[in-house]
Amino acid sequence: MRVVSGGGPARLSGVSYGLLFAVTLVLFSGCAAHKSATNSLTSQVEQNAPPVLSADASSSPSTQAVVVATGEQAIDEPIDPFAQSGEEAIEEYDPWEPLNSKIFEFNWQFDRWLLKPVARGYNFFVPNIVQVGISNFFYNIRVTPRFMNNLFQGKLKGAGIEAGRFVINTTVGIGGFFDVAQRFHLTTPEEDTGQTLGFYGVRPGPYIVLPFLQPYTVRDLVGYVGDIALNPVYWLMFPIIEIDAIPSVVPHANRTTSSLILITARGTEIVNDRSLNLEKFQGVEESTLDLYTAVRNAYLQKRAKAIRE
């Protein structure tokens, strides 16, 4: 869809290309299915690891029972490795669990049989320092949604830190490849549109799992779309949001070029992040018996904590 300035009616141009491009962007925006949730899962498992975990290896992850050895007495009970002492329980609203669990299994098998082997090959050829630099670069170019959501929540200090980080890392850090700002202790919690909605009282809604994407709640999925709209990369450089009055690096008419650049960039970021977390993810998969429930709990707790902060 193209938006025409000057008060005239909007006109449709190349609708099929636009739809194809939007779908492609969504599909490649999160192929690492457990990425953010598993990062949270890993840290919480490490912090709350029980003394002994054992299970029948022949049973499926969804049906295995965890035996917690406490002194001389063993108690059969499901373990929530994420619960913090004194922390308020998180509501797990998952009315679509039967479908969600099937999609989660699909994403997990996709990671197991395709993404992980590709990441291992990538890790073999690309030095770790380069992988960290690539991760820093992609984080740096997503500064605008983080900056704007700090402002939306009235977090002026956080907005200032984001702006300072971007200036320092883009210049001294060579386009963000090096996180020089961290050496000056310029760090702040990451803010996104989903957190902003939660800050203003919007409820999370149902938990949802989509193919090739990380988990979301309905609120966070809407926020994810909002983050795309807030990122000028998608309307100033490689337009998927076309405004005639605003020029772009790649002309609006050249959608094939925009699509290839965005797909290549996103695919590189996904494989790079998966490569950086090969051992971490492997440890989580091996030590967690009900992976679906674990990832769901970790995601919901992580999001609730982010909004509280």
Low-confidence stretches: 1-36, 44-87
Mean pLDDT rating: 78
Structural class: mainly alpha
- Please outline the major beta sheet: 2 strands, parallel
Order of strands, widest sheet: 1-6
User: Compute the gyration radius: what is it?
Assistant: 21 Å
Features:
two-stranded parallel sheet; single chain; disordered N terminus; two-stranded antiparallel sheet; 12 helices; globular; 6 strands; mainly alpha; 309 residues
Write the layout of secondary structure elements.
Blueprint: E1 2-3, H1 15-28, H2 35-47, E2 67-70, E3 73-76, H3 97-125, H4 128-141, H5 143-152, H6 156-171, H7 193-199, E4 207-208, E5 216-217, H8 218-230, H9 233-237, E6 242-243, H10 255-276, H11 278-287, H12 291-308
Parallel strand pairs: 1-6
Antiparallel strand pairs: 2-3, 4-5
Helix pairs in contact: 1-10, 2-11, 2-12, 3-10, 4-10, 5-6, 7-8, 7-12
Task: Tell me what the structure shows.
The chain has 309 residues and is mainly α. It has one domain. The protein contains 12 helices and 6 strands. The protein has helices at residues 15-28, 35-47, 97-125, 128-141, 143-152, 156-171, 193-199, 218-230, 233-237, 255-276, 278-287, 291-308; strands spanning 2-3, 67-70, 73-76, 207-208, 216-217, 242-243. It has a two-stranded parallel ribbon. A hairpin with a 2-residue loop joins strand 2 (67-70) and strand 3 (73-76). Helix 2 (35-47) crosses helix 11 (278-287) and helix 4 crosses helix 10. It is globular. Mean pLDDT is 78; it is low at 1-36 and 44-87.
